[in-house]
Design brief:
By secondary structure, the chain is of the alpha/beta class. It has one domain (about 25-329): Bacterial extracellular solute-binding protein, family 7 (D-Maltodextrin-Binding Protein, domain 2). Helices cover about 45% and strands about 20% of the residues. The strands form three sheets. It has a six-stranded mixed β-sheet, with helices on both faces. Strands 1-2-3 form a three-stranded mixed β-sheet. Strands 4-11-5 form a three-stranded antiparallel β-sheet. Helix 5 (about 175-185) links the parallel strand 7 and strand 8. The longest helix has about 35 residues, at about 250-285. The protein is globular, with a radius of gyration of 20 Å. The model is unreliable at about 5-15 and about 15-25 (pLDDT under 50). It binds pyroglutamic acid. Pyroglutamic acid (PCA) binds next to helix 7. Pyroglutamic acid binds near residues 93, 172 and 213.
Amino acid sequence: MTMHFKTIARLGLSAVAIVAGAGAALAQTAWVLPSAYPPANYHVENLNQFAKDVDAATKGELKITVHPNASLFKAPEIKRAVQTGQAQAGEVLLSLHENENPIFGLDVVPFLATSFEQSKKLWEASKPAIEQALDKQGLKLLYTTPWPPQGVYTKKDVNSVADLKGLKWRAYNVGTSRIAELVGAQPVTVQAAELPQALATGVVDGLMTSSATGVDSKIWESLTHYYDTQAWIPKNVIFVNKAAFAALDPAVQKAVTDSAAAAETRGWTLAVEKTASYMETLKKNGMQVLEPSAELKTGLSDVGAKLTDDWSKKAGADGKAILDAYKKM
Ligand code: PCA
């Protein structure tokens, strides 16, 4: 792995190999695309299809190799790796980077957009600002895909937020740490690739995430309850280093953006379809999949109001304009 990483770092943006064809030399560009999620996850399935589509549309001129499960870079490092050209493209959970720009954390404001339909509207309202923020960082946005709505996993009954007090609470971003703080749990930041281990060793015994990540981590081996609170719908974004993109022929660029548009449509459809089957998988494996009580809902909505307030303060007038635009949609 170390060798592999070094080779990539050395090749950087000019990862171009010359492949000898039948009598002619064909210039082939090779990109690596790190992702932090496991191979069976639909985000990664979608990335693999995207890479295949680009390969077919460019007749092999651009080869994209997807590296899933944080095997090349850890989740919080992927964005910087693409900005610096250590990887040409990458997939990240956008809200991991809320500290750089509050707009990256809009989709994890609790109870703002809780259905896929609302989430799509929120995306449309915020896309120009997100695209521009990424552009300023040397990144070109390719597409986005949602995770399923976020619920609460524990190994005991939870009737109100008071029951979350004292839990070893797995956090994956600023918002989920802040929730721990507000409910009196102990936040432990663990990214998805390390979650199975953290659950198995008892480092965490409570968290909010999707049915997808519950299934990916075989959560039923450690926890017993899933409260379907549908609190927010986080999104992954897939982007490319601008210089790497600019170095492509226009026809290859078009193949990339066309394949990305197809991946975006496919990703949203997959998310909807998979949410239902992930819930079934949780049940089949013995998880109690439950509706939150009225008291739990109220408690979480109070927590959500505090996070909304935090976000509005950070995001200022620009943030407010986006929120207003979303509310009118
Ligand atoms: N799964 C990822 C991010 C959001 C989600 O549903 C995780 O838990 O890390």
